[in-house]
Design brief:
The complex is a heterodimer of chains A (361) and B (288).
Chain A lengths: L1 E2 L1 H10 L7 E4 L4 H5 L7 E5 L12 E4 L4 H9 L2 E2 L2 E2 L3 E5 L5 E10 L4 E7 L6 H7 L4 E6 L8 H8 L4 H16 L2 E12 L2 E4 L3 E4 L17 H8 L3 E4 L4 E5 L2 H13 L6 E4 L6 H12 L6 E12 H11 L4 E9 L1 H10 L3 E3 L2 H12 L1
Parallel strand pairs in A: 15-16, 15-17, 17-18, 18-19
Antiparallel strand pairs in A: 1-13, 2-7, 3-4, 3-7, 5-6, 8-9, 8-11, 9-10, 11-12, 11-13, 14-16
Chain B lengths: L8 E5 L4 H17 L3 E6 L7 E2 L2 E4 L2 H7 L4 E4 L3 H13 L4 E4 L6 H13 L3 E3 L5 E4 L3 E4 L8 E8 L3 H12 L4 E6 L10 H9 L6 E7 L4 H8 L4 E6 L23 H10 L4 E2 L5 H8 L1
Parallel strand pairs in B: 1-2, 1-5, 2-4, 5-6, 6-7, 10-11, 10-12, 12-13, 13-14
Antiparallel strand pairs in B: 3-4, 8-9, 8-11
Helix pairs in contact in B: 3-4, 6-7
Classes of the chains: A alpha+beta (361), B alpha/beta (288).
Chain lengths: 361, 288
Amino acid sequence: MKLLEYEAKQVFSEYGISVPKSVLIKSPEELQARINAIGDSFVLKAQVDVGGRGKAGGILMADPATGTAVARELFAKEIKGLPVKEVLAEERLDISQEYYLSIAIDRSSKQALILFADAGGVDIETLAREKPEAVRRVSIPVIMHELPPFMLRELLGRAPKEVGAVINRLYRAFCEKDALLAEINPLVTTPSGVYAADAKLIIDDNALGRQGITLNRDLTERERQAEQHGFSYVELSGDIGVIGNGAGLTMATLDLIEYYDGRAANFLDVGGGAEQERVMHAVRLVAGVPSVKVIIVNLLGGITRCDEVAKGIISAQIDQKVIVRLAGTNEEEGRHLLGQAGYRMLDTMEQAVKAAVEATR
Amino acid sequence: MIYGDKKTGIIVQGATGRQGAFHIALMNEYAAGVGGKGVVAGVTPGKGGQEIHGVPVYNSIREAMKDHDASVQVVFVPAQAAGDSIMEAANAGIELVVAITEHIPVHDTMKAVSFATLNGCAVIGPNCPGLLSPGEVKMGIMPAQLFSRGNIGVISRSGTLTYEIVDELTRAGLGQSTVVGIGGDPVIGQTFVDVLGRFEEDPLTKAVVLIGEVGGALEEEGARFTDLPIVSYIAGVSAPPDKRMGHAGAIIEGGEGDARSKIARLKSLGVPVASRPSEIPRLIKEIM
């Protein structure tokens, strides 16, 4: 789950990383009363979870005279389609130098990968592509609690030592908070010290419980419902509802739909052991998406009992057409049940996908 | 054969849970059919002394290994405790851990895999269906009836998609040497490179199918590493960026790991890439 900037800054400051003085406001009117806490010159930053927020108009300069009007302007905006519900009013820093710092998980080395660059506020992918020598990187073995000094020297180059302390603090936060990504962009030096001017923190969804997070905000309402049933669910924009078992097979089903020029409305992986009730809930959930005209159910596996799946589909009692591809135990019984209830059961996933795409024409 | 054969003894951690118990029975059914050793013991802390489908259960892996000759452990332990189980096995001298468990926090996996590596123990998974060498051994949850013995190796980040492709291969008369599900998480133990390394040492394997998906660059690393003839299929061509497609590892982040650029890189390495699973048998026949 992605934390918002102010939440990430709160976490970073718990680990001893300095952040600018700030107040969080939920309406433009709140600003005036709390302005004293942050000084004469400040920035207003929309707390929305999008990349390129500044370029999209989500960050505005202000002072005490103009503050409320600027805040009003910001609250009225949509930043890349997202409404602005919270704004962070933050002191303007007297910046001497900007840097880029991030810690992420490197799949290849199975370790944390730390990136550091002498330029801040940058799009790191672009910088890495265009000026690879500007981005320095180290992988740190998981057994280490902090970076050995040589690694810090490699990362820092000519950057001041105080920045090295921030790297170690951020690494501790990264490990203890089950982060997939911890990023400070820009990390800035000022006459009064080193500050995280922006902050990004993504927590591993599989560790939310032990991090004390009960609600995954990244999910839409329907995705949350799906999660409660133990499904993996992603909303897409087409008209073919997709139910599969296993992430790979479900993804391959979506790809085949695209291959045959159809458009999938969703990704739903029912997971293992698809019994009657689970299948029924899955079918109803997908049928509840207004754009869905037809549903394809593609289930394969040794454990999956086709008669159970068939009963689940039939008991869902939905309006849309359902096209079924089933392979597993009790295949014949499943076929018989579905046939009696007027459903089509096809032998291969390609046949099923073609039939589903045709049904939307 | 890679990773094990008929003579390989298996211990199941999480033996008394629903999944563990169910798959002990299936693994031993398979072992009985091929004359293999199969699951010799189960482990669930606090439940020692029971029997699950005739298999004795112990409180710890060390106790189980005192009484039984085993080199492989299959893990069905719930996510929050699974990292610990992997480390316990590695510490007790197990050579290969197959971690079926899904939803293990990635920091736990990094620690467990690192710990296992330091102890000379290989980890397959987590979040994987395990592996199956037709006619020899099954470690995990793959549905054996779809498999046939032959000389095609299969390595996959997926479960059911692997079965789909194995089914296609079997129907086309292309038997498999060993099929390995390496897992759908961002951090996994054995990667394409590691398994390809084993296949290169395996006299039975003549060609390999590499089944990948969006996220990361492990498929390309594998393709670059090996001299074996390989064909590939990559799932997720239609996956939108920044959305996790079921597998924790199946996500396109920061422009990295999308299917089209992955396919382009594989093709530039000379690897034929199927645009549909059903094309794989034809591509395999072409390179053999």
